[in-house]
Specification:
about 375 residues, alpha/beta
């Protein structure tokens, strides 16, 4: 039995997390989300958490009225989300708030000595150099929920004393696999939101289309598994069955496979090191027939190269890159810039904002703010 805190409960990962909790019979002690009070009310009535926090302070009063008969304490704003993250009755926090907004609540949860099931990649992308030592200091486990990092994590199990040659991250290639530069100039928002394999939120789906998502995952993997970014490979795997793998010094490759369903990674983070029965569909190799693999085209999708460069620069560079990307994706979704302008805006921001150290969460957040401001001027 586990007591679970779900940050980002109304998003795609959050909803699937609650499905896992329902299946395993886990207690949900706190939830937090952005503004969808209708869905939060449903979640509160089913799971009866002690705390529910709404990022949008104007919606908190509405939610409080809706659930006044439940006994759930309703909080608002970033402080409310942080209070939910450190709820006394909770031993693991599923961190799935989208973007940089997940950083501070995750850090507060670590300080309260709660294990972290991490689905918010921006936490490590922007502040991995702070978060990983913090987790070690407080004796906290960081358990990856991204399907790729969960696959690497599982592939490393039992091989603590064996030398890694490389980490192999698989990528679906997104909806525009095989496109040339000119073709990408005219793609629409609706086209970019049609992911071939996974059901995800809008921001991460666009990141998958630009391949920025995979670049951010390279940075995240470097922090999670303490490897150099040059030892992390990316391969396009359209079927999304091999979720990622590890190559060892004897050239053996160990990977994790399964149907594309985030509940596998979520559940393993909760039950680690044990495995439990799951509602996820079984993988049928005969029905699958084949799996294909391709090299990524960095000349058409340069986002991964920018991410490697930002990691090597260190300091504020990863936070600048991430903040610029979040802002640029927002502009694209709102029809203010074109698809190829997203990565261009990130590159311009990374090259034009002065390098600084970023040794505190406050410094990371300041770099993020500066990058967003720069991109907003471009839009």
């Amino acid at each position: 039995m586990r007591d679970v805190i779900v940050l980002g409960s109304t998003g795609s990962i959050g909803r699937q997390t609650l499905s896992v909790c329902r299946n395993l019979g886990y207690r949900v002690t706190a939830i937090a989300a952005g503004s969808n009070v209708e869905l939060m009310e449903q979640q509160i009535r089913e799971f009866r958490p002690l705390i529910a926090a709404v990022a949008d302070e104007s919606k908190a009063a509405d939610l409080k009225m809706r659930v006044d008969d439940t006994g759930t304490k309703v909080l608002s704003g970033e402080n409310g989300i942080c209070e939910a993250a450190v709820c006394r009755y909770g031993d693991i926090v599923l961190s799935a708030i989208v973007g940089i907004a997940g950083l501070r609540p995750t850090a507060e949860a670590i300080k309260s000595k709660k294990d972290i099931a991490l689905a918010n990649k921006e936490t490590l992308v922007t502040a991995g150099h702070i978060i990983m030592p913090m987790a070690k200091e407080y004796g906290v486990k960081i358990l990856p929920v991204d399907s790729e990092h969960s696959a690497v994590f599982q592939s490393l199990t039992g091989n603590k004393n064996n030398k890694i040659k490389s980490i192999i991250l698989t990528a679906s290639g997104g909806p525009f696999f095989g496109y040339g530069k000119e073709q990408l100039r005219n793609v629409t928002v609706s086209q970019a939101l049609k992911h071939p394999s996974w059901s995800m939120g809008a921001k991460i789906t666009i990141d998958s289309a630009t391949m920025m998502n995979k670049g951010l995952e390279i940075i995240e993997a470097a922090h999670l598994f303490d490897v150099d970014v040059d030892d992390i490979q990316v391969v396009i795997h359209r079927e999304s069955i091999l979720h990622s793998a590890v190559e060892y010094e004897d050239n053996s490759v160990i990977g994790q496979m399964g149907v594309p369903d985030m509940r596998t990674a979520i559940q393993y983070a909760f039950t680690y090191p044990k495995r439990c029965a799951s509602e996820v569909k079984r993988l049928n190799f005969a029905e699958l027939g084949k799996m294909t693999f391709y090299a990524p085209d960095d000349s058409v999708f340069p986002a991964m190269s920018l991410c490697r460069e930002a990691f090597k620069r260190g300091g504020n560079a990863p936070a600048v890159l991430n903040g610029a990307n979040e802002a640029a994706v927002g502009l694209f979704l709102n029809g203010k810039i074109g698809f190829t302008d997203i990565t261009k805006a990130v590159k311009d921001t990374l090259y034009n904002i002065n390098f600084k150290s970023a040794d505190t969460i406050e410094a990371v957040l300041e770099a993020d703010k500066e990058a967003r401001s720069y991109v907003s001027d471009l839009g």
